[in-house]
Automatic annotation (TrEMBL):
PANTHER family for this protein: OLIGOPEPTIDE ABC TRANSPORTER, PERMEASE PROTEIN, OPPC IN A BINDING PROTEIN-DEPENDENT TRANSPORT SYSTEM
Gene3D superfamilies associated with the record: MetI-like
Family note: Belongs to the binding-protein-dependent transport system permease family.
Protein topology in the membrane: Multi-pass membrane protein
Protein name: ABC transporter permease
Xref: InterPro entries: MetI-like, MetI-like_sf
Keywords of this entry: Membrane, Transmembrane, Transmembrane helix, Transport
Subcellular location, record wording: Cell membrane; Membrane
Residue intervals passing through the bilayer: 9-30, 83-106, 126-144, 156-176, 214-234, 276-296
Start and end residues of each ABC transmembrane type-1 domain: 85-296
Coarse class of the protein's main subcellular location: membrane
One Pfam family, short name: BPD_transp_1
Length: 342
């Protein structure tokens, strides 16, 4: 892991993610959890622009402009960063915690049933997960006429659990297939012959071999979760709940937590009249996805360089004659072991 911090891509991606999270918490601690609001802009005592106000650097400063109700868009982006990033990380982490142990078990103890299990999971690849998420989450996230009966935290936790379980089978199949391939390696077969249990093989052999791939898989799940957030946002299902006005002339559905998918889904129809409204959260989404991709690429380069250095050291420290003799001995033992099994 020390080599990871020497990779510029990983450092850049980590700095962006950490900076957004830290800035969100610091901003709320200093200015509170309500964005600033400006009703109109005056010049020489006369109003010249009303909301939505375009981006401006003069007083009052609105770097990314305001929304349809005059709330500062930069404040909403910063306040919603922690909900967007932490929720996506929690969904991806829970998905991995569910899928990795089950995948290891299927790839080792239940490897005979792996083809049948894969045949059941494969159709899920072609099913739109967003459609299932919309049907399941609508009763939870859409505010009823009498208001929400649950708290913001409860709704976020429920959404995290549901979105994690929806795609966990696909991740389980990926881990199971990788485990099954490694399980056929000669050193694992030798450990099995010497009496190693499947649990010890998973801990001592499979997990160390798949550690780097699991990190990359976690990053991929994080990016997929962010994309799923945007799909839900387009359907007005925002993280933590959608605030709905049932008045005769009421406000449009609004995001309670100011998470970025909600800001994008709430304003993407304003692309022609006020393009800064949907483009600002879309740009921050792109920056976050770039940061996660940069971290994955930096981690891959660090692990590959570290593996090549170890391989080079191993070759220079052990004579070729010893390596060849060990290979011949292992082949003979494996041949005897296979003939004994027959």
């Amino acid at each position: 892991m020390k080599n990871v911090w020497r990779q510029p891509l990983f450092v850049i991606g980590f700095t962006i993610v950490f900076g957004l999270l830290a800035g969100s918490f610091v901003y709320e601690w200093i200015f509170g959890n309500e964005p600033s609001q400006t009703y109109w802009i005056e010049e020489d005592g006369r109003p010249v622009e009303s909301w939505p106000i375009s981006p401006r650097l003069e007083s009052p400063v609105h770097i990314f402009g305001t929304d349809q109700l005059g709330y500062d868009l930069f404040s909403k982006i910063i306040l919603g960063a922690k909900y967007t990033i932490l929720s996506a990380m929690a969904i991806a982490a829970l998905r991995m915690l569910i899928a990795v142990p089950i995948g290891f078990i299927i790839g080792t103890s239940l490897r005979r049933f792996r083809p049948a299990i894969n045949s059941l999971i494969d159709p899920i690849h072609y099913l739109p997960v967003s459609i299932f998420a919309i049907y399941i989450l609508t009763p939870i996230l859409w505010m009823p006429r009498e208001g929400f009966s649950s708290t913001l935290l409860e709704r976020i936790v429920i959404e995290i659990v549901i979105l994690a379980f929806l795609t966990a089978p696909i991740v389980t199949a990926l881990v199971a297939n990788e485990s099954a391939l490694l399980y056929k390696q000669e050193y694992i077969l030798a450990s099995k012959t010497l009496g190693a249990s499947n649990g010890r093989i998973i801990i001592k052999h499979l997990l160390p071999q798949l550690r780097e791939k699991l990190f990359i898989l976690y990053g991929q799940q994080l990016v997929e979760t962010l994309i799923l957030f945007t799909h839900l946002g387009m359907m007005k299902l925002f993280l933590g709940g959608t605030k709905v006005s049932y008045d005769l002339i009421g406000d449009p559905p609004m995001s309670i937590s100011y998470e970025w998918a909600g800001l994008f889904g709430d304003t993407f129809r304003s692309l022609m009249g006020a393009p800064w409204l949907p483009l600002t959260p879309a740009i921050f989404f792109a920056i976050l996805i770039f940061a996660v991709s940069a971290m994955m690429e930096g981690f891959t380069r660090a692990t590959n360089s570290q593996a090549s250095v170890k391989r080079r050291k191993r070759i220079t420290s052990i004579p070729d004659e010893v390596i060849e003799w060990n290979r011949e001995q292992l082949k003979e033992k494996m041949t005897l072991m296979k003939s004994g099994q027959r």
